[in-house]
Amino acid sequence: MKKFLSLFSLVLLTMSAWAANTYVKVASIDQLEEGKKYILVNEENSVAMGALYTAGSTNYGTSVEISIGDVIDIEGTDVVELIAAAPGQDATGNPTWNFRMGEDGYYMGWTSGNSLTGINLPASNNSAWLPTLTDDGVILKNKVDNSRILQYNAGSPRFACYTSSQKPAVLYVQDANVTPPVTVAAPTLPESQEFENSLSVTITNNEEGADLMYALNDGEFTEYTGALTITETTTVHAKAVKGEVESEVVSATYTKVEPVVLTKPYVKVNSADELEVGKKYILVNEERKLAMGEITGGSTHYGSHIEIPIVEDVAYIGGTDVVELTLGEGSMDVLGNDTWTFEINGSGSYILWNTGNSLDAVTGDGATGATGAQWIANATDDGIVLSNKSDNARILQYNASSPRFACYTSSQQPAVLYVEYVPQEDGITTLAQANALADDEAFTFDGDAVVTICWKGSVYLRDETGYGQIVDSLAVFENGQVLSQGWNATKTSNNGWVKFIDASDLSASGETNAELAAPQKLTSFPEESMLNAYVWVENVSKSFMPIRSIPLPDGTNISLTGTGNQPAMGSYNIYGLIWKSGDNLVFEPVKWEKYVAPPTYLRGDVNNDTFIDINDVALLIDVVLGKDVEYNALAADCNVEGGDNTIDINDVSALIGRVLTGEW
Q1: Is 655 helix (H, G, I), strand (E, B) or coil?
Q2: Comparing C-alpha atoms, which of 509, 554, 527, 552 is closest to residue 467?
Q3: Is the previous residue joined to 181 through a cis bond, with omega within 30 degrees of 0?
Q4: Please, what is the angle between helix 614-624 and helix 649-661, to 10°?
Q5: Does residue 16 carry a pLDDT above 60?
Q6: How far apart are CA 74 and CA 48, in angstroms?
Q7: Confidence class of residue 4 from pLDDT cuts 50, 70 and 90?
Q8: What pLDDT digit, counting tens, does each position of 469-527 carry?
Q9: Distance, CA of 639 to chain centre
Q10: In 3D, which of 370, 276, 286, 390 has the Cα closest to residue 325?
């Protein structure tokens, strides 16, 4: 598209320097007045006519986006202002008008086709227009051919002269006595949603300098000072107020539902050696939290998919139609691998592959002898997957696009085995086992659990398998202490948040494990498996306003609770715990530590003189020999980028190479 130019170098002015930039709609032809300024507007698409351009052989008026209201303010836009003049009458005696485009511009005119052009002859009939009142407003018809109407083509988009029905372009007149309405951007609420126990609702301010107000249900509006904790079904209304102007009210409803009771736990199978005849298994796609249900279908049979909760690597199937598979013995494949059969829900039917992608069932006395009903357990990075004995290229997988569980040679999503969790009679030895217990089940813990922190009457634990929380504890421990084996508690859960209650016989064993007790650095949004984890976030900037969410290095944010006890302005490392509020993970701060930037140093500059030379080599040799000398330890650990936490002959060798070659 190129800018339209006549032989006289048409110049179109938008008159942004005029005192008034406000326009109101022309409601009557009698409102037209010589010397007044007008604009052409298509209200439906919120556009006004701008400068003339050419596209091929057709000239037209460009479209400029504007804000439509009772008053239109064109300040700062490229909208063309039209100065009206009365040139004469049409054949029936109706007055016609010329419209000059800018004080020194040409007249708006029509010559042929759909073109809207500029004419430098004010007496030309082609630049004369017949204002006509319609239901949409006052439109313009050309004097030469009144079937040519100045309209807006939304498909192109453009303002031009059409005989066919396009969108109306109506006149607005300048009115210096009106003031553009002052508007305030409405705040943002989280979308309406369901929650189980409680939900934290944060209202986001979208207008700088505005105050936020909120109301619950039919209550009065009050000042918003921080996140709201909702514990019952509630409609939240919110608005922004700036001076005497209010935004529109936005609303969302948060509906409380009964908590999901997690029953019938299954834990992941990590090795084919764990398979045991007579035990029950399920097939799970972990990424989408789905398990295989009833085998069904038309010409191709497959396993249906059932949504299940997976919390801290434990899948719960209570109250669902998930298929439970009882493991039976098979035989061996040609390579000597064990094969297995899987009985469906104790029905005497076994899962089977025989052709294509089908996953079917086989019954009868010969069912367990059919090679298509025998499966090889293969260990993968995802877990234990099943390939068929008849054709081990056929793997039982999950097809997310269909969706279904079936047998594929192409790469679909993994379906891995989980085994029914049966509590150990001799006590629990890992936190993962304790978390997998049924609710209200008492247990004795005979493993090594390390205290990460005691906070608000709870003891937070960690071992190699996960995290735990002992609530309402009177015992206080130091970080890193290992609990004595044999303490007792009862497992409970709330919306997937596992806790241990009624704990007794708690004591420290005398052993410590500082590595497991240390807070973990949080760099990305945590998974539910990190519930009850003691973590920290580095270098969070604190302004005078309370922090309500923490930005993580991966670009996500995690909500913050307990925002009332925050330090003054500055940058901090924040230490805290991962909790759960409703369906949301939140961060509960435990302490704020002033952020100290890591020291800067030049690798290899052992003597801190900003140069790397033979003097640094000599000093480093003294260091390695154990002499009492002053040196920069960070710069001396130079054999690898970032150091290896050891200063020895390897660092000397690396530094000599750097001095001789200029490169590391």
Answers
A1: helix
A2: 527
A3: no
A4: 170
A5: no
A6: 9
A7: very low
A8: 999 988 899 999 999 999 999 999 887 788 999 999 999 999 999 999 999 999 888 88
A9: 41
A10: 276
Q: What percent of the chain has pLDDT over 90?
A: 64
**pTM to 2 decimal places:** 0.39
Q: Given the structure tokens 């209550």, which residue do they identify? A: 219
**CA nearest 541: which of 569, 560, 577, 520?**
569
- For 327-353, what is each residue's pLDDT tens digit? 998 888 777 788 999 999 999 899 999
Compute the average pLDDT of residues 231-246. 94
Q: Are 477 and 517 in contact (CB under 8 A)?
A: no
Can you tell me the distance from the alpha carbon of 478 to that of 470, in angstroms, rounded to the nearest whole number? 15
Give the helix/strand (H/E) hosting 435. helix 431-436
Pair 488, 443: CB distance under 8 Å: yes
Tell me, letter by letter, the H, E, C secondary structure of 131-155: EEECCCCEEEEECCCCCCEEEEECC
What distances in angstroms separate CA 22 from CA 107, 139, 341, 406, one per listed residue? 22, 20, 80, 66
* H/E segment holding residue 332: strand 325-332
Of the candidates 408, 406, 308, the residue with the CA atom closest to the CA atom of residue 361: 406
Q: Distance (Å, rounded) from C-alpha 591 to C-alpha 611?
A: 41
* Whole-angstrom distance, CA of residue 481 vs CA of residue 661: 51
